[in-house]
Backbone:
């Protein structure tokens, strides 16, 4: 008698690239759009290495403000629907957002391209994990989110926000590229595809791989994009229906 093992069906791999539009429905202000954060806080002062060197107190105050503003924000239905894809697919979320809303919604495999708001690091060696501090942290104000100006990393340098400043390398980009190269389905949500290097990820998707773009605005991009012109939550509802019909 021959013993036969059941054939395991591998899950298809979905890679989801998300931008600021993903979190708009949670009430977060975008950085680039009219009325966004860059209108009130000059990018060169709060999101560049030169800005940090010139006035680290001002930079820390800005990110302390953001953390206080974001602490009670909840994931929108779109975040939750992205997380629900894990029931049927092998899912990696690649996000340009520094909030932790994908984690809060239940996504388990997340690559942060532009850093994490709820993390601090060494200003001497940003990628040294020994110097990373996850917030909230005991001793940092009543909420644990207000990092003092003189707070030090384990290497003795000032703590700085774990944010990829403009002009700095994107340390997780290589990992994101590897994910894009192996995607069976590639989904883009809430990004104009104008911010590089993240926007270039779609160029690594294998020919013939379905690419879906969820965004309420017209986007000038690849002709083979399946554009669902809608916000994140409604767009994900429509996309899940499309995937079920395939």
Residues:
């Amino acid at each position: 008698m021959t013993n036969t093992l059941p054939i395991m069906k591998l899950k298809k791999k979905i890679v989801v690239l998300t931008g600021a539009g993903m979190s708009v429905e949670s009430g977060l202000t975008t950085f680039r759009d009219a009325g966004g954060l860059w209108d009130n806080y000059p990018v060169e002062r709060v999101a560049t290495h030169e800005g940090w060197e010139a006035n680290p107190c001002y930079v820390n105050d800005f990110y302390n403000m953001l953390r206080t503003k974001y602490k009670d924000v909840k994931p929108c239905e779109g975040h939750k629907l992205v997380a629900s894809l894990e029931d049927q697919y092998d899912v990696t979320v690649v996000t340009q957002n520094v909030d932790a809303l994908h984690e809060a919604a239940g996504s388990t495999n997340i690559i942060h391209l532009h850093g994490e708001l709820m993390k601090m690091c060494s200003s001497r060696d940003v990628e040294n994990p020994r110097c990373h501090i996850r917030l909230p942290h005991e001793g940092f104000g009543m909420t644990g989110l207000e990092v003092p100006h003189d707070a030090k990393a384990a290497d003795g340098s000032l703590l700085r926000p774990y944010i990829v400043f403009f002009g700095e390398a994107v340390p997780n980009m290589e990992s994101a590229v590897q994910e894009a190269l192996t995607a069976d389905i590639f989904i883009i949500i809430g990004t104009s595809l104008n911010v590089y290097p993240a926007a270039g990820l779609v160029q690594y998707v294998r020919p013939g791989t379905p690419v879906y773009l969820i965004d309420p605005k017209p986007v000038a991009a690849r002709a083979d994009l399946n554009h669902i012109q809608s916000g994140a939550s409604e767009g994900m509802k429509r996309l899940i229906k499309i995937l079920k019909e395939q």
Q: What stands out?
A: Strands lie at 13-18, 90-95, 110-112, 115-122, 133-134, 159-163, 185-189, 211-214, 226-228. The helical segments are 37-40, 43-46, 49-54, 56-70, 77-84, 101-105, 173-181, 232-245. The chain has a mean pLDDT of 89. The CA atoms of residues 106 and 246 lie 25 Å apart.
